[in-house]
From TrEMBL, chain B:
InterPro entries: ComplexI-like_HydComp (IPR052175), ND/Mrp_TM (IPR001750), Proton_antipo_N (IPR001516). PANTHER family: FORMATE HYDROGENLYASE SUBUNIT 3-RELATED, HYDROGENASE-4 COMPONENT F. This is NADH:quinone oxidoreductase/Mrp antiporter membrane subunit domain-containing protein. Residues 2-39 form the NADH-Ubiquinone oxidoreductase (complex I) chain 5 N-terminal domain. It is a multi-pass membrane protein. Pfam families: Proton_antipo_M, Proton_antipo_N.
Amino acid sequence: MEYGEIIKILLMLAAAPLISGVISRIKNNLRLRRGPGIFQPYFNLAKLFKKEERFSEHSSWLMKVTPYIVLGSVLSAAVFMRAGDLILLTFVLSLGRFFLALAGLDPASPFGGFGSSREMFFAGFLEPIILLAVFASALSGGGAIEASSILAAAALFLATLAETSRVPVDNQETHLELTMVHEAMVLEYSGRSLALIELASYLKQAIFFTLIMLVLWPFLVSRIGWYLLSLLVLAVIVAFTEVSLAKMRLFRVVDFLFFAGILALLAVISAALGV
Amino acid sequence: MLNWEFSFLIDPLTVLFLFIIITISIPVIIYSLGYLSGKYSRRKIIVGQLLTLAFIVSMLLVVSVRNTLTFLVCWEMMTLMSYFLVMFEAENEKSIKAATIYIVMSHVGAAFIAAGIFLLHRYTGSFDLLVLRSAVLPAGSGDLLFFFFLIGFGIKAGIVPLHLWLPYAHPRAPSHISALMSGVMIKVAIYGLLRFVFFALGIQALWWGGVVVLLACLTCLVGIIYALIDNDLKTVLAYSSIENIGIIMLGLGAAMIFVPLGQPALASLALVAALYHLINHAAFKSLLFLGAGSVYRSAGTKNLEKLGGLINKLPWTSAFFLVGALAIAALPPLNGFISEWLTLRVFFLGALAAPAGLKVIFGLCVATLALTGGLTAACMVRAFGMTFLARTRSAKAEQAKEGPLTMLLGMGLLVILLIGLALGAAPIVDLLAKVAASTAGLPVQTFTLNHYIVSLPGASLSPLLIAATIFGALVLTVAAAYLFFGRPRRVIVPTWDCGYYQLTPRQECSATGFSKPFRIAFSFFLQPSRSTQKIKDSHYHVRSLTYESETAKIFRDFFYLPFIGGLFLTARGMKRFQAGSIQIYLAYILIVVLVLLFFAGRF
């Protein structure tokens, strides 16, 4: 791999928190609040990186190594996305999630355990949606915008909401015990470890946004101007979605994901028919 | 007429299976030296080891004999040896029940295989596999033979809905035997399918592949859903074996679709994917069963609800089990990922070449495979987490400590094998391509660029590069964190308890609790029912609470129990003929002789 690629991926890592900053800014403005600036995620990260880490007395080495594995796996997912292997990408992302779910169980906290259970529950249903969307775009060749690519992108968008733990599946803003999913899983993390995990989720969000564009219309990714514009558009859509919907009950999420799966299947059917 | 000679058929397929059986058996035997010691009497250990050796030898014979009758004999020997081994703890009622279910179902399977073999003999006049291959069968006879072999070998392999014996028998046997049964024996059944359907019959119709793919999808999903909700560590692994057989069958089914479609390259690739997953599963499932054996031996239980916190008490076993869990969850860079990637690529590539209807079916296969993968990850998080992480939930498991060195050595060898299977993907794919070609009678295809890169049209896979990237990213992360922010300052604190009161192990997420969302999501299939019982001191204070949750075993209740009921009903009806009077029996003999005389000329 060339150095240029590495620099691009590191740039993506550096810029990824900005997307969340923009989304949260738009959300706050839509709710007629002022809210923090778009660079707030960086301040949070900087603060967390400097702080000490607190580990539960019941936790093992697994909890200490997990943050590095999570960020490492998301970074290599970015590499594999640039290399064009989307199957590999989804499997590498699962690697990070696997360790994160184990780390949720490690400190013997009831929150962490149930967070892990729910995260793996969503993940199980998300994987077929993502791979079906990728399958549809591989079938249609992925040149121009077609019915199949729009359907696949829509399915991926719903999957992205779930993957990035956003309303209506999860809620990043809450720390109310009963409603957390992803946040519950990482509840025991603090300091540098938490910063690494958050950084990884920012990058994962950027990866998923890029994946949507790749499936919808690869042209969007080829030019930096179009890419940034599409990121912004996606951020606006996500913000509007989050503001206008309420979080679902856990078991309604199955219906939500089932709907996304049906969309992805329709994408495959229309790709098979050539429309 | 019965030219029964004892000769071997040594071709690439046989060599592959001999290799698998031997490579898995050696670590398992090493492990068993430590596992059995101190647990059983000396005499029992000797009997057990002799039986194990006979079991391994019979499997070696099954995959290497040339005569189909000899095959049948060796197949029976394999079944009997494993039957005795399932009953190893015969003082336990459950072992006897499991072994009985196993032997009965195995014999139903053997009957189908025997019927197939004798039908083949009827058509060709030969028991020789090589003669059978070149013989031309009468038109339309293939379908029946295919069904006989599919059912016969399907029972042994544990294809849903013929899987019923597997979750009973595999967990009951001693762990090293479970490892052999799940890791190797059910693969021998796949060998049977390959040998008789691909090699002897040849793929004669497109719908054969359709049937296999459909059964495979069913097997994957049913296997993993049951694996997710069971609370016995070894039963979880047994159900997961069913699921993995499903993945192997998906590859086989795809190959059976591509052969009649006239796509030899894709058919070879599908067979390669199936065989690769077969080897992988042999390696990681035996590792996991051995790990479960270590847990059982040291903690005295394999109930997930009573384990926990073993990661500090069994550091080596937990590390080995983690590697196995990562591999079976198809996570890169380990070997399970490689075969799953290949299987997915088969469907991706196949869809480009197939007609529109098949494209959608392949899409559904991809979705099934992905769903299975996601659920497997959840299942393995649960199995590993409940066993090794958090706090220990029973007094017995508190005392756990690592077993003898031979046990660790056995597992360690398998871990090395896993890593080898992951990094050596390209040479392995090359070898498997040759096996696939010779078995299915296809031209040899090359799916590799060089010794390091697997290369398919439109995609390539370099396991070394993947491993390097992931480790590189990991090292980069650690290095950057230490470089910019120095050594982390770590403080050990109690787990967050909402400022309430001291948490106890009972407040952790339990194994049943972990699988609750899955039970609800799949309630249409599992039909869970629960009962709670509260004993109250007063209106406000509950003294004790019993919670029971049960799921319906659909296949047992709607498929097997009615069947067994019918059998007993028929038997009761037949009882009337058994009056015990000698005159009536003589009359029966007379009637039979008359009937035979009457029909004698017609056969």
